[in-house]
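[Meeting: bench + compute handoff]

Bench side (C.D.) handed over the final construct sequence. Compute side (W.E.) agreed to return the predicted structure before the next meeting so the bench team could plan truncations. Sequence as handed over:
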Amino acid sequence: MAVLAAVTFLLLPPVLSDARVPESIDLNAGVESRNCAPCHMRLDETVSPGMIFSHGMHLIVSCDACHLLVAHEGGAKNSPPMEACFNCHGVKHGPVGELAAAQCSACHTPAFDLRPRSHVPAWAKEPHAERARKDANRCMMCHDAPADCDACHTAENLDIGPMPNTYLSILREKPRQPVVTVYPTEPTSMGQCIYCHPDVDDFTPGRIIFAHADHLRRNYQCTVCHSRFGHGIEGVRRPDMLSCYRCHGATHGVAGVIATEDCLACHPPQFELKPPDHTPAFERKDHRERAGIEPEYCAMCHKPDFCVECHMGRRPDGPGSEKVIPADHRKAEWISAHGRPFLEQRGACGSCHDSPSCKICHQTVMPHPADWLSDHTPAPGIDRQDCNVCHTDRNSCQVCHHDTVRRAELTRENCVPCHDEMKQEPATGIKHKGFATHAVHFDVEESVGKYYRCYDCHVTFGANGANAATRQLEKLQAHDLRLCYECHGALDY
């Protein structure tokens, strides 16, 4: 036994990484580990109920000695027939004796019903005779002819004669099949799948409602959902629910919702929508960790107002009847500092804050709608300063807003159409420090002899560009203040 175990270990197929998966597999070729391992990582134990079987104990036997037909064909699985087992089990090989045990208990669990489904109550009459006339040899896999057959025939006064008492091993002739090639390292396509899955929409009843045709008619590529080949060494690679939400519930500008996010559009009414891990403890407290790590998972089912109702303590009793206030929100500086983490998408502000709660301070719609950038002019009555509460770094704004005047002269005529405050005179009376600083440089042609251009001071603005050190400095302030002293304090100016 120890020797057999050692041989089995040495003959185990190596674990295949994706890098070692064969580039192509012929589905109609003879069964061998090369063709099976890319999709079936675990070949050691059987998955058939009632069977006791280990590939590891059979590795010294060629795969196609048992797999007489191709493993998969026309969407069905071809399991080895029992005749294949009896090519070794119960067969005596000279002085060696039996090649493998023939007892039923060697291959079937005690709970397994040994009586075939075809053996109906009336089987002992005419039905079994009809089968025996065609293939009496197959009956001998289980039956002892003198005890089970001849004794019964004599009692029934049937003139049949003795039945053969030995099962004769027979190898079927394997039909020749055309080459059918799939490429497990290539992208998923309908041509890759359809041979084994002629009905690609044959899903487990009661779980999901899905039609590939509805998606193919919209010209979606298979790889949009199946980013990798559908089978791999770890098992079947099914698209997760997050991949559905790339379209379902997503809004595409003025076109509106791309695909519905109604649960019953994809799940039947009897499907339990609540995941099994959503226990009372999970709902009360334990969901916090997952929501912090993977908020997109929660957002598939829960809209912000669902979270806000609970986190803001708007429920009458139980979980959600008290506000959830994070520790950093209790600090005095949080009011003035919360804008940056919101813009950097740190934390999950939407779990507690909806538009009404933000509007207490911010008159602008918060969070901004999906098409906000197309026209984000402040609504009547809302001061532009409301934008500055969050958008303290104006570089990103100026990339767009100054694009049309990037090479224009820095004159009043080019600036005041967008910045009304700069019309005020004298410029030193302008309250906005940034506008005042710029406005005092408008009418300098008489004293300086030329107009100033933006990039005379903003060295990263326009065609001049800048080196890495200057670009880093500009993130902290408009420009290097040493540039100011090239003019201010110079005797000729």
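W.E. noted at the follow-up: Confidence is low (pLDDT under 50) at residues 1-17, 461-470, 473-478. C.D. will use this when planning the next construct.
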